[in-house]
User: Which sequence fits this backbone?
């Protein structure tokens, strides 16, 4: 079989499951913006079908989806350069996900740590959707034959599963149809940790609002959250070795590094020896200066709901133009009568 050359194409997404936070921005969104406008297509989705794998109040979900779109645009994604849309409006995602539910093996899914983390102790009571989540994620990516997926470090395992699904599909049907997608996990902030617990990642779904810096937080709230962030009593070290076994200290240094476009080594060369009482206000000032232009723009866009809805509708149309033929070709390969060659 000859190796198919797939056109470089970028896909990624975030869930409208709460407030966009600093981890989403530094681990994902900022990199999405960086990949926009180069030589390839960039497709960025608001994954509402993923959000409902845990309970979402319908009116909150509607608001969170529009707010997420505002967050994408305020962070620098341009609807004229990237395809921006919400997942439910391109039904091919869910249709391909069904095929992938029949390709993925139970054993593969049972190894997924995100399911274990989110289902917690009461896994029997989790939704079937939460368990099947990674197969839908594989479909999100492969319905566009995306070759590169910029994500935070927590999504690495799901990207490996996406490759396993593509490999098994190609093998089972004797085709070279789905690409083996590359994860793009970049920078010191690929895993921003909770401000309350350095062993847990910062998350939208964390019940404690003090655990994260939301993109919509005002300057006082950001300062307060950083001031109250868990730390240890030691001064900052001058080298990164000194951050070992100090997860909270490392997290704050990494956030500072990412926000100031430096390495952790460069930051420590500057702040080594300082106490947190001195470092935290520096970090708060930096975070406010980087985030406030974004939150101001988000608030402005949220006042233009009709415009957001127009952007999403236009994005869904463009996305479907790519997804429809790929789904029909998949149906044809699988042997479904009536699959159309489009
Ligand atoms: P939820 O808690 O509902 O899963 P989340 O905070 O994990 O929300 P997602 O919408 O699941 O956010 O993820 C969107 C993108 O942000 C993904 O690429 C993910 O890898 C990235 N991301 C999420 N949390 C972090 C984090 N703490 N640090 C770096 N990247 C992150
Ligand atoms: Mg998540």
Assistant:
């Amino acid at each position: 079989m000859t190796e198919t050359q797939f056109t470089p194409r970028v896909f990624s997404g975030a869930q409208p499951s709460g407030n966009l936070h600093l981890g989403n921005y530094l681990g994902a969104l900022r990199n999405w913006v960086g990949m926009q406008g180069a030589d390839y297509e960039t497709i960025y989705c608001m994954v509402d079908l993923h959000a409902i794998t845990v309970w979402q109040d319908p009116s909150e979900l509607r608001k969170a989806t529009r707010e997420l779109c505002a967050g994408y645009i305020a962070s620098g994604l341009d609807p004229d350069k990237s395809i921006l849309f919400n997942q439910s409006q391109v039904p091919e995602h869910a249709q391909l996900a069904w095929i992938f539910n029949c390709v993925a093996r139970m054993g593969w899914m049972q190894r997924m740590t995100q399911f274990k983390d989110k289902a917690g102790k009461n896994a029997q009571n989790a939704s079937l959707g939460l368990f099947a989540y990674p197969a839908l994620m594989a479909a999100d990516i492969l319905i566009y034959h995306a070759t590169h997926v910029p994500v935070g470090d927590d999504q690495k395992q799901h990207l490996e599963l996406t490759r396993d699904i593509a490999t098994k599909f190609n093998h089972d049907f004797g085709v070279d149809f789905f690409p083996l997608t590359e994860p793009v996990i970049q920078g010191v902030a690929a895993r921003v940790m909770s401000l309350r617990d350095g062993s847990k990642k910062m998350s939208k779904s964390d019940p404690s609002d003090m655990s994260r810096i939301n993109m919509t937080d005002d300057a006082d709230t950001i300062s307060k959250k950083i001031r109250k962030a868990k730390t240890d009593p030691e001064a900052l070290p001058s080298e990164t070795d000194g951050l070992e076994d100090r997860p909270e200290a490392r997290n704050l240094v990494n956030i500072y590094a990412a926000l100031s476009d430096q390495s952790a080594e460069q930051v420590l060369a500057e702040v080594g020896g300082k106490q947190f009482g001195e470092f935290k206000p520096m970090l708060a000032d930096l975070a406010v200066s980087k985030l406030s232009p974004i939150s101001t723009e988000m608030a402005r866009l949220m006042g233009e709901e009709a415009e957001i809805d127009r952007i999403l509708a236009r994005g869904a149309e463009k996305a479907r133009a790519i997804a429809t033929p790929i789904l029909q070709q998949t149906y044809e390969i699988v042997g479904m009568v009536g699959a159309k060659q489009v």
Remarks:
- The radius of gyration is 21 Å.
- Residues 14-15, 17, 23-24, 27-28, 151-152, 154-155, 190-192, 201-205 surround adenosine-5'-triphosphate (ligand 1) (CB under 6 Å).
- The chain has a mean pLDDT of 96.
- Residues 305-334 form the longest helix (30 residues).
